[in-house]
Amino acid sequence: MGPLEPNVPQLIIGLVCFFLIFGILGKLVLPRIEKTLAERHDATEGGVERAETARAEAQRVYEEFQSELAAARHEAAQIRQTATEEGAALIAQLRAEGQELRNRMVSEAQVQLAADRVVAEAELREDVIRLAGDLAGRIVGEPLADLPRTRAIADDFFVELDTKTTTRS
Predict the structure, then answer these.
(1) Alpha helix (H) ranges present in the chain?
(2) Are the beta carbons of 161 and 155 closer than 8 angstroms?
(3) Half-sphere exposure of 118 (CA within 13 A, CB side)
(4) Cα(154)–Cα(130) distance, integer angstroms
(5) CA Rg, the chain, in Å?
(6) HSE, side-chain direction, 13 A CA sphere, residue 62
């Protein structure tokens, strides 16, 4: 027996042991190795894929946030514009109301002044007539205030004075 002539029972036992070990390795060890390799692949490639997915999600959220922020800024600008317009309208309205109130108060004051002037002129004329009558009565030595003609003379004087004042103006 030499190296070229194998011992058949040993060869059969060797082949049976070889296939038995190969089968055990294929059934028990190989799935564990494949599982470990798959986990490593998942850890590296899956991690990259998950990171890419997370980055894409973060980018989507960021863009959504930017669009909402732009919309909020636009809305704030519209609110400011509306408030400015309403404020200007309110100021214009209040200014118009104040102008109207001022005009009304000036008109009322002018009417009141005219009425007060008429009253004051009437009182002043009565006082002048009375004082003129008293003075004339002292000069003459008799009371002239009671005479009906005294009143007519004073009225004529004031009419003539009013006429002169009116023609000068």
Answers:
(1) 8-24, 30-41, 47-140, 148-168
(2) no
(3) 5
(4) 10
(5) 61
(6) 6
Burial (Cβ within 10 Å: 0-12, 13-18, ≥19) of residue 132: middle
Using CA atoms, how far apart are residues 147 and 133, in angstroms rounded to an integer? Answer: 9
Cα–Cα distance list, 54 to 42, 59, 69 (Å):
16, 8, 22
Helix (H) or strand (E) holding 4: none
Please answer whether residues 15 and 6 qualify as being in contact, where contact means their C-beta atoms are separated by less than 8 angstroms: no
- Per domain, the residue ranges of the chain are 49-168
Kindly report the number of other CB atoms within 10 A of residue 145's CB atom.
Answer: 15
Q: What pLDDT digit, counting tens, does each position of 29-83 carry?
A: 888 889 998 888 887 877 778 888 899 999 999 999 999 999 999 999 999 999 9
- Average pLDDT over all residues of the chain: 86
Per-residue pLDDT band for 158 (boundaries 50, 70, 90) equals confident
Report how far residue 53's alpha carbon sits from residue 129's, in angstroms, rounded to the nearest whole number: 111
pLDDT of residue 146 exceeding 80: no
Question: Whose structure tokens read 């909402």?
Answer: 68
Q: Which of 149, 145, 154 is nearest to 122 (CA)?
A: 154
